[in-house]
Amino acid sequence: MGQELNKPNINKKPIDGKTKLFRYGMNEIQGWKKTMDVFTIKENDIGPDKNINIFGLFDGHSGKEISQYLSDNFISELLKNNKFINGEYNQALIGTFKNIDISLRTEEINNKLQIYSKKNKDGQRKKINDIYKTIDNENKLNENDIDNLNTFMDIIDPNNLEGIFIADFIGSSGIIILISDKITYIANAGNSHCIAINKNLGIINDKNVIEQKIYNINEKKRVKIANRIKYGKEKEYNNENEEYLYMRGFGNFQYKNNDLINIEEQEISPVPEICEIPNDNIKYLIICNSGFYEIGNNFSKNIEKNIADYFIKKLKNEQKIISDIIGDYFDDFIPKKDEKIKNFIDYNFSCIIIDFFNN
Fold it and tell me: pLDDT confidence of 45, banded at 50, 70, 90?
């Protein structure tokens, strides 16, 4: 489809820092994908008592507009949430995920997304071929064009977005790490990952946080029910095996248009799974997007364990800069030979690692 570069962009973007509780590092590369659709956030010592640290990763799907918007606005929306102000962080995270997702389908936010789209795509698109006609006379997506959704934002003219809701066609996963004085909250909606490693250097196995793909039985059950309600039993079989990039996340409202069920029950839900871990039981957190995680398939089927083992070994050297360790991972495992490009052309690669002191 012409969506990859001729050679990978391997320019790294390292960031490192520390707080009274931990040190951290971040790094990313664009890879073969034409755009960098993954955006990370960090904010230290915030909240009413200046005791909250937040890290996040948003991985865009079929476009970068929503992940870009989330990186610019998620923290400010969280800080305004009354549950956050009152220290009810679990509910504050759920509420913020839901509220932001709902807002993506409003005229106000859509106008902002269109500005992102125009800035991102001006000068980058060729003239649209006449064979791609994705908008009918009522400025709505034709049902026959569902197969083109993944490339919709690559063929549409960014200067002619009137009547188009960008969040109908693109989306983003989102994973947020909120660290208070005593508890870490991991909120995940989508196919990004957090591998939590305890003070005994074992993986804290919470599949709700680590995995949210179609083979998760609870996720598959929700989609099956949503399809049955939406299409009726006669079409249930045809839809239950549909492949999804992720089961939870922001945007992609073509999968959230069932008026008979609430927002939590849609085919793709914006509501994150959340786990809470006492800080004194965490040594490392490895937060990464799906591309970074999938590299693990190259060197073992047991992806979580081998990613954990790789970083634990290197992080034991506390003089080593964390962003450099992530950079080593890029160098060691991202293939650079032409014959292996096909497995990674759709991926960006991004990772955040947090190393708790005194654990």
Answer: very high
* Rounded-to-integer distance, Cα 45 and Cα 58, Å: 21
pLDDT tens digits for range 276-297: 999 999 999 999 998 898 876 6
CA 220 to each of CA 101, 212, 263: distance values in angstroms, whole numbers, following the listed order: 21, 10, 16
pLDDT at 112 over 60: yes
Domain count, the chain: 1
If you write DSSP's letter for every residue of 76-134 in order, what string do you get? HHHHH-HHHHTT-HHHHHHHHHHHHHHHTTSHHHHHHHHHHHHHHHTTT-PPPPTT---
Residue 232 lies in a domain: yes
Q: What is the CATH number of the domain that holds 238?
A: 3.60.40.10
Q: Which residue has the tokens 């003239």?
A: 127
Note down the domain range covering 80.
Answer: 32-109+168-341+348-356
Nearest alpha carbon to residue 170 among 74, 78, 245: 245
User: Which pLDDT value is given to residue 261?
Assistant: 87
Residue 359 or 339, more confident: 359
Q: State both tokens at 124.
A: 């980058």
C-alpha distances (whole Å) from 271 to each of 16, 99, 268 are: 30, 10, 9
Residue 302 lies inside a defined structural domain of this protein: yes
Please check whether residue 160 lies inside any domain of the structure. Answer: no
Q: Which of 210, 212, 217, 219 shows the shortest CA–CA distance to 305?
A: 210
Predicted model pTM: 0.85
Sign of CA dihedral 327, 331, 332, 335: positive
Kindly state whether residue 7 falls inside one of the protein's structural domains: no
In the numeric block, which tokens belong to residue 147? 């197969």
Percentage of residues in the chain with pLDDT exceeding 90? Answer: 49
* DSSP three-state, residue 175: strand
Element (H, E) at 138: none
- The pLDDT value recorded for residue 334 is 78
**40 contacts 358 by C-beta, under 8 angstroms:** no
